[in-house]
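chain below, 577 aa
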Amino acid sequence: MKTPEFFKRSELTATLWLFRREFLIVGAFSMIANVLMLAPTLYMLQVYDRVLTSQSELTLLVMSLLTLFLFAVMGFAEWMRSRVLVVAGVRLDEQLSTQVFNASFEAHLSQSGNVPSRSFGDLIQIRQFLTGNGVFAFFDAPWTPIYMAVLFFLHPWLGVMGVVFALIQAGLAWFGHRHTLAPSEAATQANADAGSFLQGKLRNAEVLESMGMIRNLQARWADRHQTYLARGAVSQHLTHRITAISKFIRYTQQSLALGAGALLVIDGQLSPGGMIAANVLMTRALAPIDMIVGSWRQFIGMRAAFARLETLLLNYPPRDPAFKRVAPTGQLSLEQVCAIVPERPTPILQNIDLQVKAGTVTAVLGPSGSGKSTLARVLVGIWPDVSGQVLLDGLPINGWNRIELGPHIGYLPQDVELLEGTIAENIARFGKVDPAQVIAAAQSAGLHDMILRFPKGYDTPIGEAGNLLSGGQRQRIGLARAIYGNPVLIVLDEPNANLDDAGEAALFRTVQELKANGKTVFLITHRPGAVAVADRILLLRDGQIQAEGPRDAVIAAVQAARQPPARPAPDLTALPA
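prediction:
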């Protein structure tokens, strides 16, 4: 069956369209359940109007057994539709979780905030709504007119009363949507802002505690939390007010329906059984509308989560897994590259032109704030906002499938981030651990002997973010991870920042080995010792290339620029004879 254009807007809507069969099954079971909801009404009519007058015990027994059978079928239909939705919710999560995971981290790289946890929360919220009572109300609501028709069959005035109360409940639902949507979204956003602020500060708990900064930051968090409380109070007041009105209408409807039925019985226009049946039937007819009003807040939250998740998947669609490129050689070109930050008036990097052949070691030097770390992110294709072109083997680096490109790139950031797991798992990038390659990377990084001194060797757990290791150990493991798998492009940002002399010597030996194996290496550092292993030097200042070229030529040019200008010889002809 061809997918309608509406469901082609995003991966989310297209995935939901795949579950149309399950929703049709739920609709079929809902039809059975709602039709059988008439069984209690018919049973009461027969008991009051036929059994009590005839006093036939056999009739009562047959009708009771038949009604019990219909109740069993109705219960089975209710159970099956719930089961189908639960299974569909699990399958929906399985279908989307990988795409949400990948899109979340791409969005996080583009500096969109704490996207990953929020995105999975949105997915869970959608799944829970689709498997909860709220969605059943939408399946049951179309049967309200049928119940109304039965009320009209019992007596026209009862049908008119049912329609009036249905319109009142529908108007209340519309009023709730119009007046609670904005306050609910504002409260949700305020809660997210307060949580994001707190999580960001908890990552620096040691610094905050040591310098007594917690009280100052607590005051700032309290302002955000108070904003959330105020907005949440407004939203909850509206919701509770609407819920109270809904209960008043429901109780009023039940009492008036019973009273109207009693009046019709007194006038001889309705039997006592019809009076009881009409009361039950009207309550059942308005139950879906009442449930919609009760679950409206969850529906609003689900709709907002759906919109956020749909936008995420639209902005970061899955890459074609069948698309393959030839393995790169490491030749890199930058053409008029500018690295931009929206809040900053001038780019961090401005008009960078660079040509680097494969197998070249380039030392990137410059003062703090010159854009060296930004250049490192640009070179590996993770800076979010770049103009110009970054070409790897003549092809835009952002055009690569990151899963395919990843093994060909090694990156050691300035702030080394290790993950909870063993040393071997971190070096192997949490893929399938190849012991030979892990040991080779560790030996190349001068790390092998140190690892063997740990109690469990390569199987030693390092704790969350590597907190069980020293700064130098984390940096060496990060270096081994960067060169694991024999990548062709290695970008090392301040790799010797936490290393002692022995570690730095091991680092330079590693760079020389990489150079001998034809790898393209960028070595970003403040220390002049790295210049000795470089083929080329790139000097950055204020985001621009100040000097670039072969190592000896750049060093000579810099030294010449630092020499004081020669004093001109005195003009002796100007002296008197």
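The chain is about 60% helix and 10% strand. The domain at 332-562 is CATH 3.40.50.300 (Rossmann fold).
thats it, cya
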